[in-house]
Amino acid sequence: MIFYIIKELAASVGIRKSISPHTLRHSFATELVENGADLRAVQEMLGHASITTTEIYTHLDRKFLKETIMKFHPLYNGKFE
């Protein structure tokens, strides 16, 4: 039933892309990780037995990871070439 409710709501606001509860779950997890949430906390929220599943599920792009490392790693001190 939730699947149909989400489909109807998406259509009512003009979203043409296929959307499902899984789409919302994926978006939620990706937003959390990309905004600094601990991957283990996201793993627990999603109910994944393995952290590897969570890493794959969030589909973090390499650019984001590189920028994060450059920003916070003490050896790079915000600079990376």
Keywords:
81 residues; mainly alpha; 5 helices
Can you give me a brief rundown of this structure?
The protein is mainly alpha-helical. It has helices at residues 2-12, 21-34, 39-46, 51-58, 62-72. 7% of the residues are buried.
Please, could you describe this protein's structure?
The chain is mainly alpha-helical. The chain has one domain. It is built from five helices and no strands. The protein has helices at 2-12, 21-34, 39-46, 51-58, 62-72.
Topology, element by element:
Layout: H1 2-12, H2 21-34, H3 39-46, H4 51-58, H5 62-72
Helix pairs in contact: 3-4
Q: Which outline best applies?
A: elongated
Rg value: 16 Å
Q: Characterize the main sheet.
A: none
- Return residue spans where pLDDT drops below 50 for at least 5 consecutive residues: none
By DSSP, the count of extended strands is 0
Q: Structural class, please?
A: mainly alpha
Helix content: 55-70%
What is the ordering of alpha helices and beta strands? HHHHH
Q: What assembly state would you assign to the polypeptide chains in this entry?
A: single chain
What is the count of DSSP helices, taking H or I runs of 4+ residues? 5
Q: Into which percentage range does the β-strand content fall?
A: under 5%
- Determine the N-to-C terminus distance: 51 Å
Average pLDDT, all residues: 82
Number of domains: 1
